[in-house]
């Protein structure tokens, strides 16, 4: 499957319920030749059905969230962490802040709605919209943990507002909360008579105060102001009134209904290559209220229709059900059910709701393991051992280890960059892709290649690019090359250098490399560390383990995104701050222990590390304790040589675009560290250089 060329781009804008289900289905049954991209502002997408339970404290944040990074990996899709801000239907591109436009052949929009009220004075500064759900959940989590005798105001007396009010009252019931539900007319008027009476009774039981026929005119830090002059005190003011489309949709040129994208029975917009689903869409053939149940039922139809339009097949219509079972949380573990005007309530209905919600989420937590192709019955000796028991890692995890290179390159060309002529250094680095997003991969590869120049205390001068693209059509080649070279030019320009050329070819997978030159009056080398010097590291370690776990579907999306963000943090300022270092290198493929061994060997010294002071990326220690390692781990462990004292696996973890490792005079180390931290680096003093020719740990 991977050997087939890519010919079409499918872009999913937003990680809503429909798209999450489509990604899962795509992983089970991909369409050969299609490159899938998902764009979402964050690594997770909260499930709306469990939000009231999360607010009430019945679910954790992990239970609430669909991990889109893990889901994208399963689907073979590139995950772009960012906000979509527009669609150019003429150019067939999507804009995302901070990166080149993303081209599409077919696109689908599932970005949900917002309950933000920018027209209400003070809401943007002091209010918390209930949607999008992710931002709301984070704000509520922080407030719930710190609040004492809280006062809460919910603007909007519909079912969603009432659910939130009761959930908040339940979560804070031991903190003497005051919860007020405010509506400009009467609350819960969308419900039938019996269901409304039950909900009103539940609100009363939860001690939620209902404020009706009250229009909010202003939000301030301590509460809200009503049109009649009354002031309601509030420490946490949220808006749950109605559904508002995202502003950028109005500028797309697509046909709209009250700001929502109009779609036909096939879920196609006014432009046949753009689909829309979920709350951001208006079903022109059979209008329905904004409800998650419709988004879930749209998923198989969208999946089939995307495959059809990408392969020249026939589309099928979506036929929404006339009514659906509405299950409403009542704060505690009790729920109300309503359908066709009939209503019931009680703990058994909560159990039903909990079962349905957990069943929905389980399908994303328990993704099927796709077995690798079986080997032929007869193979050359050593083939199974060479393949190993897991796929080869990307980035530095795919490089040759220090032990293998010890007598070939390290002993002959030990420093990070070679001196071409006095004042000029040069280095080259190439990386097998560890993310399918070519823009982010370019940033990582560029920062990684520049690391060798910064490690010598040099300023970048010029660079040439060397690219291997996966097999793809000419159109996709052009799109991908444009993304890569636009990004590379921006990274090197910011670093003070310039792209002056390059070479490209097609191959099995994406590989990006750069040959870089730099200028310096006095290169900082590996040789020069002195006993008593403090050892400073400018970035946390753990990227190899996190990315190995991501490939196996075992890493949290938030940890993966945080890891990638650290990789693209440049070391230009750090290199300047460390300009007086006695010795310096960057921590990359050989791991922290291997690169420290390089300084020690070249300088004729030893080192004493304080393991507790070594900064580690979030999630890396947990994954390491589970035995997850990069494929380069074992070679790095051997290449680092003996270590006296305690050790841990992350010392041998290959880093991609890792931090600078420097030996700094003891008298200036504290000042250097303070300057690094002020510049935004997670730097630390992790030990000191010793006279004993060994690496020891405490």
Q: How are the secondary structure elements laid out?
A:
Blueprint: E1 8-13, H1 17-28, E2 34-40, E3 44-46, H2 51-56, H3 61-64, E4 65-67, H4 68-75, E5 78-81, E6 84-88, E7 93-96, E8 102-103, E9 106-109, H5 123-126, E10 127-129, H6 133-146, E11 151-155, H7 159-171, E12 178-182, H8 193-205, E13 208-211, E14 216-220, E15 223-226, E16 231-233, E17 236-239, E18 256-257, E19 260-263, E20 274-276, E21 281-283, H9 292-311, E22 326-330, E23 332-339, E24 342-346, H10 347-365, H11 383-387, H12 402-410, E25 418-421, E26 424-432, H13 438-455, E27 459-470, H14 474-494, E28 498-507, E29 511-519, E30 534-537, H15 543-551, H16 557-567, H17 572-577, E31 583-586, H18 591-603, E32 606-609, H19 620-625, H20 633-639, E33 643-644, E34 660-664, H21 666-678, E35 684-690, E36 695-697
Parallel strand pairs: 1-2, 1-9, 2-5, 9-20, 10-17, 11-12, 11-17, 12-13, 19-21, 27-28, 32-36, 33-36
Antiparallel strand pairs: 3-4, 6-7, 7-8, 14-15, 15-16, 18-19, 22-23, 23-24, 25-26, 26-29, 27-29, 30-34, 30-35, 31-34, 32-35
């Amino acid at each position: 499957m991977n050997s087939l060329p890519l010919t079409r781009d499918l872009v999913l804008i937003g990680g809503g319920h429909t798209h999450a289900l489509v990604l899962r289905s795509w992983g089970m049954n991909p369409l050969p030749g299609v490159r899938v991209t998902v764009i979402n502002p964050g690594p997770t997408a909260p499930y709306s059905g469990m939000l009231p339970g999360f607010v009430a404290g019945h679910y954790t944040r992990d239970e609430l969230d669909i991990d889109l990074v893990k889901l994208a990996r399963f689907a073979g899709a590139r995950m772009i962490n960012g906000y979509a801000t527009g669609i150019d239907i003429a150019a067939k591109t999507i804009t995302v802040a901070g990166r080149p436009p993303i081209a599409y052949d077919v696109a689908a929009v599932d970005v949900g709605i917002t309950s933000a009220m920018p027209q209400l004075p003070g809401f943007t500064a002091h209010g918390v919209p209930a949607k999008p759900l992710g931002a709301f959940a984070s704000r509520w989590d922080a407030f719930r943990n710190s609040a004492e005798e809280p006062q809460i105001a919910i603007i909007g007396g519909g079912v969603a507002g009432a659910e939130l009010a009761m959930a908040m009252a339940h979560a804070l019931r031991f903190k003497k909360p005051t919860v007020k539900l405010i509506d400009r007319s009467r609350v819960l008027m969308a419900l039938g008579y019996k269901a409304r009476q039950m909900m009103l009774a539940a609100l009363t039981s939860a001690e939620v105060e209902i404020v009706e026929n009250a229009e909010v005119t202003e939000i301030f830090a301590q509460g809200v102001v009503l049109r009649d002059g009354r002031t309601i005190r509030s420490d946490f003011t949220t808006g749950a009134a109605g559904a508002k489309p995202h502003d950028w949709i109005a500028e797309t040129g697509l046909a709209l209904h009250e700001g929502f994208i109009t779609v036909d029975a096939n879920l196609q917009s006014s432009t046949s290559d753009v689909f829309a689903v979920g709350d951001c869409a208006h079903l022109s053939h059979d209008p329905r209220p904004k409800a998650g149940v419709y988004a879930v039922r749209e998923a198989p139809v969208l999946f089939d229709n995307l495959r059809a339009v990408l392969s020249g097949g026939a589309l099928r219509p979506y036929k929404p059900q006339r009514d659906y079972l509405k299950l409403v949380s009542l704060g505690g573990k009790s729920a109300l059910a309503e359908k066709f005007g009939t209503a019931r309530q009680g703990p058994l209905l909560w159990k039903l709701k909990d079962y349905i919600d957990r069943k929905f989420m389980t399908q994303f937590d328990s993704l099927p393991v796709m077995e690798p192709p079986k080997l032929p019955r007869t193979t050359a000796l050593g083939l199974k051992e060479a393949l190993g028991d897991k796929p080869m890692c990307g980035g530095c995890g795919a490089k040759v280890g220090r032990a293998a290179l010890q007598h070939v390159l390290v002993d002959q060309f030990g420093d990070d960059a070679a001196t071409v002529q006095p004042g000029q250094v040069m280095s080259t680095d190439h990386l097998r892709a560890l993310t399918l997003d070519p823009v982010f991969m370019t940033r990582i590869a560029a920062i990684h290649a520049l690391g060798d120049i910064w490690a010598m205390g040099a300023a970048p001068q010029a660079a040439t690019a060397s690219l291997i693209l996966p097999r793809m059509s000419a159109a996709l080649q052009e799109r991908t090359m444009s993304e890569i070279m636009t990004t590379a030019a921006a990274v090197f320009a910011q670093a003070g250098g310039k792209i002056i050329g390059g070479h490209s070819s097609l191959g099995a997978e994406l590989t990006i490399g750069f040959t870089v030159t730099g200028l310096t009056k006095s290169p900082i080398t590996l040789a020069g560390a002195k006993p008593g010097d403090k050892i400073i590291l400018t970035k946390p370690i753990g990227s190899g383990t996190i990315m190995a776990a991501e490939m196996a579907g075992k890493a949290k999306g938030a940890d993966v995104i945080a890891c990638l963000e650290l990789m693209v943090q440049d070391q230009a300022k750090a290199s300047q701050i460390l300009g007086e270092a006695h010795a310096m290198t960057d921590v990359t493929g050989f791991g922290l222990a291997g690169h420290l061994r390089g300084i020690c060997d070249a300088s004729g010294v030893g080192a004493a590390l304080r393991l507790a002071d070594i900064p580690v990326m979030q999630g890396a220690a947990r994954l390491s304790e589970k035995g997850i390692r990069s494929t380069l781990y074992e070679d790095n462990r051997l290449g680092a040589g003996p270590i006296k004292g305690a050790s841990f696996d992350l010392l041998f973890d290959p880093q991609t675009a890792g931090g600078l490792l420097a030996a700094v005079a003891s008298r200036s180390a504290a000042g250097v560290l303070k300057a690094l931290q002020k510049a935004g680096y997670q730097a630390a003093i992790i030990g000191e250089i010793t006279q004993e020719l060994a690496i020891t740990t405490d």
